[in-house]
Amino acid sequence: MIRTSWQTTVMAIAAVICLTHLALAQEAPRRPADAIENQAPTLPKYIKSLEVYPLGADQPIAPIGRPLFSYSDSARIIAAGAIWAWGSEGRPLAMAKCWKNANGTQTCAFSLTSDERVVVRGPQFKTWRPDEIQIEAAELAGAPAPDPKDAVRLRQIKEQARRFTAHEFWNSDNSRFELRLLSQPVHRYHEEKRKIVDGAVFLLAIDDNPQILLFVEILSPAASEVRWQYLLARVSSADLHVCLDGKEVWARERTPGIVGTSTDYYWHMVATPEP
Fold it and tell me: What's the CA gap between 29 and 24, in Å, rounded?
């Protein structure tokens, strides 16, 4: 009886989401092609210069047309920092933390956030082609039955995100730095392909500088017996550790050479300023 009730609740949530998106699609007038093209210049030049392809595909995936989060970090001499994502439907295929360095170079720290591999062609003939994926879905046990109301469900998702804590080691003396969860998700999505009824991306950060991506997702009963799940991905070269309810559930060693290599699932693509 409990399982049936839960399935009915989630199916109701899925129906509400589908009807909402259908209504928006019917109400929103179609924009002419020139209006869409005129929106492109709002993307920074370094984002427009990147072409992101699913492995083996001929058509690139467009970036979400705005930064999901913006920040600066004077202690680390980082300016104009932002989180960007590619793939407007469902969980992003790839994400990147991009910033300007003191010497004028631009760094895009790419992180593979899908279970599908990608190829990214950037400026100055640079290419990112990760050999392996990094994310693994894990059951988020102890979560409540999701509420059909979006506002209540968002509150539930935030409550689940607050169960996570994280820290990192960076300096040569291995000083420990505590990360803080930014309370608001930077992106929400749903995805029929993966049976994701509702999903949200949170940031674990030093001050406002993101270090880890936390994905919290609700699955429909047809997906599996896992009703809530979480996934983690790095956007930092540090030695990273994440705990759930005080118990460590995820750890990643420091990125080799800080920048990594162009075949890693996390890599710094550094572009020099154009003359």
Answer: 9
Looking at the structure of the chain, the number of domains it has is: 1
How far, in Å, CA of 263 to CA of 213, rounded? 20
pLDDT in tens for each of the 275 residues of the chain? Answer: 444 455 555 555 555 444 444 333 333 333 333 333 344 457 899 999 999 999 999 999 999 999 999 998 888 778 889 999 999 889 999 999 999 988 889 999 999 999 999 999 999 999 999 999 999 999 999 999 999 999 999 999 999 999 999 999 987 677 899 999 999 999 999 999 899 999 999 999 999 999 999 999 999 876 556 689 999 999 999 999 999 999 999 999 999 999 999 999 999 999 987 65
What is the residue type of 60? Answer: P
3-state secondary structure 172-241: CCCCEEEEEECCCCCEEEEECCCCEEEEEEEEEEECCEEEEEEEEEEECCCCCCCCEEEEEEECCCCEEE
Tell me how far CA of residue 32 lies from CA of 26, 29, 37, 38, 84, in angstroms.
Answer: 16, 9, 9, 10, 25
Per the DSSP assignment, residues forming a β-bridge with 244 are 164, 247
Long-range contacts of residues 222-227, Cβ cutoff 8 Å, at least 24 apart: 222/195, 223/194, 223/195, 223/196, 224/195, 226/137, 226/139, 226/140, 227/6, 227/10, 227/143, 227/145, 227/146
**DSSP label of 103:** T
**Which residue range(s) make up the domain with 91?**
2-271
- The residues pairing with 216 across neighbouring beta strands, listed in sequence order, are 200, 230
pTM to 2 decimal places = 0.85
Which residue type, as a one-letter code, is found at position 220? S
Q: DSSP 3-state assignment of 7?
A: helix
CA 213 to chain centre: 6
